[in-house]
Automatic annotation (TrEMBL):
It comes from Nitrosomonas communis. The record marks H173 as: Important for dimerization. Signal peptide: none annotated. Keywords: Cytoplasm, Heme biosynthesis, Metal-binding, Oxidoreductase, Porphyrin biosynthesis. It is found in: Cytoplasm. This is Oxygen-dependent coproporphyrinogen-III oxidase. The active site is at H104. Its EC number is 1.3.3.3. Pfam families: Coprogen_oxidas.
Length: 298
């Protein structure tokens, strides 16, 4: 096991993804390095008011400390009190055009240590898509790319991680999915370090091919204030999930992470309405009836 090797892959992954997105948008990302007083730091690469992206960030972090926070030990209380190292790349992109979907991707590695005991390590991550207006071919492409990322490691991983994603990115208080899912995994340490690391790398390496073709297809679609209004309404669900349910947000805040970097995932323009539903038969209603349903796309 080599934490330095994982960090090297993640920093390179961040560079590659940012370079690909800058080439597409035409506006450079802001590169903002930061340090964590308790140990570690990171690099936040952020774009605001780009040609395509209204807001987005591709963040690398490496943090360490003397004790794991409650969010990391809730499911594994036996790890409470261990020192830890955590490193990962996390990104969220909010395009301006309502026909282009929001996306989230995260790949990460944890190691928990205790003197006199064997080190405990695990990988986690995944990517999921949140459209505002659904297109079947986009959903199929995204899920097929997710499946392709996992296929070399066994047929069982895609259905398992797809189901995990559907269950995790679910707003329990709204009784609805955040988007059309993708793949998600956590506490992943079987069968061995090399296999787990290779699988995590494959997920990260497939991000651009999963998302960029969708952007290129939708970024010039004409839209009006109606579509922007619905986009802002649905972005409210994204905010609700990240602030109420997301374990990554909670982990970052509990470990004293950099708040600006943690909350860069939130969209810049959001609206809430009281007890509103879209008109039956509308394109907005179709998002609920045809896409936010936990469907098997491939």
């Amino acid at each position: 096991m080599n934490t330095a090797e994982v960090k090297a892959f993640l920093t390179n992954l961040q560079k590659r993804i940012v370079a690909g997105l800058e080439q597409l948008d035409g506006k450079p990302f802001l590169h903002d390095a930061w340090e964590r007083p308790e140990g570690g730091g990171g690099l936040s690469c952020v774009i605001e008011e780009g040609n395509i992206f209204e807001r987005g960030g591709v963040n690398f972090s490496y943090v360490h400390g003397s004790g794991l926070p409650a969010s990391a030990t809730a499911a594994r209380p036996e790890l409470a009190g261990r020192s830890f190292e955590a490193t990962g790349v996390s990104l969220v992109l909010h395009p301006r055009n309502p026909y282009a979907p929001t996306i989230h991707m995260n790949v990460r590695f944890f190691e928990a240590k205790k003197e006199g005991s064997e080190s405990v390590w695990w990988f986690g991550g995944g990517m999921d898509l949140t459209p505002y207006y659904g297109f079947e071919e986009d959903a199929i492409h995204f899920h097929q790319t997710c499946k392709s990322a996992l296929q070399p490691f066994g047929d069982e991983y895609y259905p398992r991680f797809k189901k995990w994603c559907d269950e995790y990115f679910y707003l329990k208080h709204r009784k609805e999915p955040r988007g059309i899912g993708g793949i998600f995994f956590d506490d992943f340490n079987q069968p061995d370090f090399t296999t787990c690391f290779n699988l995590m790398q494959s997920v990260g390496d497939h991000f651009l091919s999963a998302y960029v073709p969708l952007l290129e297809k939708r970024l010039n679609t004409p839209y009006s204030e109606r579509e922007r209004d619905f986009q802002a309404y649905r972005r409210g669900r994204y905010v609700e999930f990240n602030l109420v349910w997301d374990r990554g947000t909670l982990f970052g805040l509990q470990t004293g992470g950099r708040t600006e970097s943690i909350l860069m995932s939130l969209p810049p323009i959001v609206k809430w309405r009281y007890n509103w539903t879209p008109p039956p038969g509308s394109a907005e209603a179709a998002l609920y009836t045809d896409f936010l349903i936990g469907k098997d796309w491939v």
